[in-house]
Design a protein that fits this description.
This is Polyamine aminopropyltransferase. The protein folds into two domains: about 5-55, Spermidine synthase, tetramerisation domain (Spermidine Synthase, Chain: A, domain 2), CATH 2.30.140.10; about 60-280, Vaccinia Virus protein VP39 (Rossmann fold). Strand 1 and strand 2 form a beta hairpin. The strands form three sheets. It has a seven-stranded mixed β-sheet with strand order 9-8-7-10-11-13-12. It has a four-stranded antiparallel β-sheet with strand order 3-4-5-6, with helices on one face. It has helices at about 60-70, 90-95, 110-120, 140, 170-180, 195-210, 245-250, 260-265, 275-280; strands spanning about 5-10, 15-20, 20-25, 30-40, 40-45, 50-55, 80-85, 100-105, 130-135, 150-155, 180-190, 215-220, 230-235. Helix 5 crosses helix 6 (about 195-210). The protein is an alpha/beta fold. The protein contains nine helices and 13 strands. The protein binds S-adenosylmethionine (SAM). S-adenosylmethionine binds near residues 137 and 157.
Length: about 280
């Protein structure tokens, strides 16, 4: 008998992956957690039935979340990740010798435990001595931070369930306060293709624009997310994502990446007209 994982991307559109076997199924205080194995995408993690990452395409998401701001900020030493319990953002960040400390604030301890066991491709660097994990709601954690971080990466679930608070005006305002005077925040910014996703994306964008002096959106192709076209937010107190790109310095690091490069960095901020229209309308 064939087994399939299916996610509804809209009320009338479904996306399915044939599953070889289910490796984990559990319910935490916050959400249902599943890990599957598949021929095409390798292992993949879903929360409440929504795709979080697959082994085959997670490099796109994690490289774009981390290397874009890291190639702009001149000295990112202290970094905060909110969400990100799969460890993919940590894996990319610990490659930078300049990074001195990483706080990861994940609401759900079980996500981290399950990823450590079943998704070692992303959950491989939790033991790096620069990493501290806090099992807390990011919305609450950020309230008491002030002038502390060079970079905040909001690697959250979608704007409902436990992730809802991470798309609010209060949260973005507190991220601004938690950043140093030249800090940068990046976030997963949903998608613009399907109507409901686009409206959520516009709401989040409006709140970020109201909270930061510099705010841009960039894009990547992520096959397993709704529509395959994903957006990220770049919000900053001082640095412009293209004018302040330190391409020569970043290339001198000699990192081997599979998606990110400094030419793509510039191109990722050139958005399709329909997305620009949606962003203008906020
Ligand atoms: N790449 C993913 C995506 O866009 O689908 C995100 C993956 S990561 C696993 C998201 C994490 O955010 C989850 O582990 C979830 O538990 C965590 N999370 C959701 N709401 C949170 C909150 N309020 N505070 C901290 N972590 C939260």
């Amino acid at each position: 008998m064939e087994l399939w994982f299916t996610e509804k991307h809209t009320p009338s559109v479904k996306f399915s992956i044939q599953v070889d076997r289910q490796l984990y199924c559990g319910q935490s205080e916050f959400q249902r957690i599943d890990v599957f194995d598949s021929k095409e995408f390798g292992r993949f993690l879903t929360l409440d039935g929504f795709m979080m990452l697959t082994e085959k395409d997670e490099f796109i998401y994690h490289e774009m979340m981390v290397h874009i701001p890291m190639a702009v900020h001149p000295a990112p030493k202290k970094v905060l990740i909110i969400g990100g319990g799969d460890g993919g953002a940590i894996r990319e960040l610990v490659r930078y010798p300049l990074v001195e400390h990483i706080d990861l604030v994940e609401i759900d301890e079980l996500v981290v435990a399950v990823c450590k066991k079943h998704l070692p491709q992303t959950a491989c660097c939790f033991s790096d001595e620069r990493v501290t994990v806090h099992y807390q709601d990011g919305l609450k954690f950020i309230r008491r931070c002030e002038n502390e971080y060079d970079l905040i990466i909001v690697d959250s679930t979608d704007p409902f369930g436990p992730g809802e608070g991470l798309f609010t005006k209060e949260f973005y305002g507190n991220c601004y306060k938690a950043l140093k005077e030249d800090g940068i925040m990046v976030n997963q910014h949903e998608s613009a293709f399907y109507r409901d996703d686009a409206e959520a994306m516009q709401r989040a964008h409006k709140r970020i624009v109201e909270s930061f002096p510099i705010s841009r959106v960039y894009q990547a192709h992520i096959p397993t997310y709704p529509s395959g076209h994903w957006l990220f937010g770049f919000a900053s107190k001082k640095y412009h994502p293209i004018e302040d790109l330190k391409a020569v310095k970043w290339n001198a690091l000699g990192f081997k990446t599979r998606y990110y490069n400094t030419q793509l960095h510039v191109g990722a901020f050139a958005l399709p007209n329909y997305v620009e229209e949606l962003l203008k309308d906020v």
